[in-house]
Amino acid sequence: MAASGKPVLEPQIQVTPELAAEHGLTAEEYARVRETLGRDPSFTELGIFSVMWSEHCSYKSSKVHLRRLPTRGPQVLQGPGENAGVVDVGDGWCAAFKIESHNHPSFVEPFQGAATGVGGILRDIFTMGARPLAVLDSLRFGPLAGDTDGSARNRRIFDGVVRGIAHYGNCFGVPTIGGEIHFEPCYTPNPLVNVLALGIARKDELYFARARGEGNPVIYAGAKTGRDGIHGASLLASAEFAEESQQKRPNVQVGDPFMEKLLLEACLEAMQTGGVAGIQDMGAAGLTCSTCEMASRGGTGIEIELDRVPQRETGMSSYEIMLSESQERMLLVAERGREAEILGVFRKWGLDAVEIGRVTGDGMLRVRHHSAVVAEIPAHPLAEEGPVYQRPLAPPDHAVPEAETLVEFAGEAVDLTQNFRLLLSAPAIASKRWVFEQYDNMVQTNTLRAPGAGDAAVVRVKGTSRALALATDCNSRWCQLDPRAGAVAAVAEAARNVACSGARPVAATNCLNFGSPEKPEVMWQFSETIDGLSEACRALGVPITGGNVSFYNETLGRSIYPTPVVGVLGVLEDASRALGMAFQEHDDIILLLHGQGRGAAQACGEDLRREFSSSEYARTIHGIVAGTPPAVDLEAERCLIDFLVAAAGAGLLHSAHDISDGGLAVAVAESCFAAGALSAHIRLEEFSGPAEAVLFGEWPAHAVVSVHPLQVAALDLLAAEYSVQVREIGRVARGEFRIELNGAPVIRADVNALREEWTSALERAMGL
């Protein structure tokens, strides 16, 4: 019965091709629906097909390309296809992790859009039987500074997203321990909110989203169903924003982190009884997605009765109940005869839990409402046999010749200290303290490296000597200039950051954010990105265990930059060896590491101008976004990664920080800032090329480390074993921050003044 106690009849709406088109189905797709059913669909069935065959749920434009990604490895226990990827981390433990997007909802309602993004990815983790350990967020916004309506809206969205992430994570009780934040004009109308979650479980206690056992009861647990989020998957996440779409935007879901905490504990306790045969959260497409996907994966069918579904609103139709995306809900399959035990666990935690159906052997998703069958669809075709498109590919036509926009090096006339200050204050490089201070990053007391303390976040695995490291990375500016090279660089940087923590990279997850797949240039960007990810993941031994594709990130025909966010997981055998970026001791030696690989020469001449024109320095100081990303030598990256892991394990390093945004000068400064009271005196001898390129060039396969003077010789021996070049470039100091290049001082400033400018820049941009 409905919440009012009055029966609600199935809407007698005639389904036509025009109505199907309003639901996002093309004429050809609607014809396939009729072919699959052997008849015209009911209105509820039309809604079910529209969400399951949407871009968001079926990956109809990306599936043919995603098959090229490497997904297997010696430590991979579960790859793509489940709620989260799972890898073996030793001692009988495994890690479940995945990254997903909540971009469009966060534009419509920043606080709840971001909050429910956190809630959704956490459910993906504990649905596997893993207890969530940590969250990382990878965020993109338009520029904050300025008096325009766009910059004001960017500040409002930025503030709302950060508060939403903080609210949900802090209330739920999971630490938000890392991530990244970038700002580009293309994200003004299309912010990106990508959230990664990590959990831990015993290998023999994993659970999967499969409905097995004919006659087993199907149980609904958690929050009541309302009308929030209806058509979120098919309209909000599978179409670009245009003026007319303002009227079609569905209500964004509203999350309740306290209920999710109860749901977590109840689900894990129910799993411990041994009476759970399968489980899946109700995320995108809600009850529709969870029922048909569980049935399809299990090779079974599911029959449910909607009168039994707990509802918080009156008069809900079968269409609304099936498509609702209300949060904090789970669907379980219990072992027959154990249902009372499972229901009792949820009652103990004060949660609704109701048997709403059973597993069948006929392969059908059958939905009843007031005793009438309102939907009867073959589960496997619905979940797995949706349309797949090989969409046209074509590289974009760049109208402005590259040579007209490359950086011209300024020579001795430039004030490098002043430019260095400006670079440290750029939102992409400035401290993100204002953000991460809103997050509880120490809850659960597993955090070893909190936000800002290292290149990767690090959490201990209690009960073992091990720790896990995670980093997310993507330079979307590079991906816009060259999608394949940018994707290679994203994997390399994420893996390098994990290695700088002392952990060995073992697996990856990705969140692929792009514009409309109906544009050939966007699909070309996507295909090139997949090739770059595949190449780098294979070379560095980090298979993709799952992730998310987010298309239609564009407004009024304007796409975002291609933004393939890569999250890499690493394993640290000895948690006590975890490294941070902060310099540790006065008079420690500062070394520059360079993986040798094939021994490729540093770029020079016109190639150097092209590479440098893609840097953060070129964008901030010269207003130029042009050229090509720096060439990544994956063999050199592998050498550097292996060396960093070995050196950290041997206890030879006091700190490690890779060279990325802002180059060598920024990397050294950030290690000073993280240390608090320490500075650096750097002497760069026998460095060729323009001073700007030496100081601010963003070199792949490089890192800055600090070591005790007595450990330098041992480090040199180890570096030779791993084909890593080591150059002594200075010492940890106090007071003045100083860099000399070939005998001449090029940057001199009080380190505390620099730290203050870097620390407060984001708040200044927000007008705080």
Structural notes for this entry:
With 768 residues, the chain is α+β, with helices and mostly antiparallel strands. The protein folds into three domains: 17-61 and 208-384, PurM-like C-terminal domain (Phosphoribosyl-aminoimidazole Synthetase, Chain A, domain 2), CATH 3.90.650; 63-205 and 432-575, PurM-like, N-terminal domain (60s Ribosomal Protein L30, Chain: A), CATH 3.30.1330; 579-765, Phosphoribosyl-aminoimidazole Synthetase, Chain A, domain 2, CATH 3.90.650.10. Helices cover 35% and strands 24% of the residues. The protein has a seven-stranded mixed beta sheet with strand order 8-10-7-11-9-12-13. The longest helix has 24 residues, at 149-172. 61% of the residues are buried. Residues 1-9 and 243-250 have low confidence and may be disordered.
Task: Name the CATH superfamily classification of the largest domain.
Answer: PurM-like, N-terminal domain
Which secondary-structure class do the elements indicate?
Answer: alpha+beta
Number of DSSP strand runs: 28
Intertermini distance: 52 Å
* Basic shape: globular
Mean pLDDT: 92
Global Rg: 26 Å
The CATH class of the largest domain turns out to be Alpha Beta
Task: Work out the count of structural domains.
Answer: 3
**What is the CATH-assigned architecture of the largest domain?**
2-Layer Sandwich
Please provide a brief summary of the model.
This protein is of the alpha+beta class and 768 residues long.
Please outline the helices and strands.
Layout: H1 17-22, H2 27-37, H3 43-52, H4 55-58, H5 63-66, E1 76-78, E2 85-90, E3 93-101, H6 103-108, H7 110-126, E4 131-141, H8 149-172, E5 176-183, E6 192-202, E7 217-222, H9 232-236, H10 257-272, E8 276-281, H11 286-298, E9 301-305, H12 318-323, E10 329-334, H13 339-348, E11 352-360, E12 364-369, E13 372-378, H14 379-384, H15 416-424, H16 433-436, E14 447-449, E15 457-460, E16 467-473, H17 476-481, H18 483-500, E17 504-513, H19 520-540, E18 544-550, E19 554-555, E20 558-559, E21 563-572, E22 589-595, H20 605-612, H21 616-622, H22 634-649, E23 655-658, H23 663-675, E24 679-684, H24 691-696, E25 702-707, H25 712-721, E26 724-733, E27 736-741, E28 744-750, H26 751-765
Parallel strand pairs: 4-5, 9-12, 17-18, 24-27
Antiparallel strand pairs: 1-2, 2-3, 3-6, 4-6, 7-10, 7-11, 8-10, 9-11, 12-13, 14-15, 15-16, 16-21, 17-21, 19-20, 22-25, 22-26, 23-25, 24-26, 27-28
Helix pairs in contact: 7-8, 8-10, 10-13, 18-19, 18-22
